[in-house]
Specification:
Length: 94
């Protein structure tokens, strides 16, 4: 059980990996405005007790891809190194 009730929110407990054990999806629940989805975390495989919870910070969707194209020419020289250590590490978060 992950309890973010007393400090931060659920994302406080999630780190990046190029081979994540969770996926982030937009969901529409208890919300009538389709422009305001909530983010939901779904496991991609069984996660053991005390195992780090991870997602890929470089999300891929049509919305993020359009945003990435816009900012890529502005900040192409600024690279954030990835330190996830996975076998398929991309070496950079962006």
């Amino acid at each position: 059980t992950v309890d973010a009730g007393t400090y931060g929110n659920i994302a406080h407990f999630v780190n990046h990996s190029c081979e994540p054990n969770m996926a982030v999806c937009m969901v529409w629940i208890n919300n009538l405005d389709v422009r305001m989805p909530r983010l939901a975390f779904f496991t991609k495989r069984d996660i053991c007790a005390h195992e780090e919870l991870t997602v890929d910070y470089k999300m891929s969707s049509s919305a993020t891809e359009a945003h990435d194209r816009e900012k890529s020419h502005l900040a192409s020289h600024i690279r954030i190194k990835c330190k996830c250590g996975s076998q398929n590490c991309r070496k950079f978060l962006n």
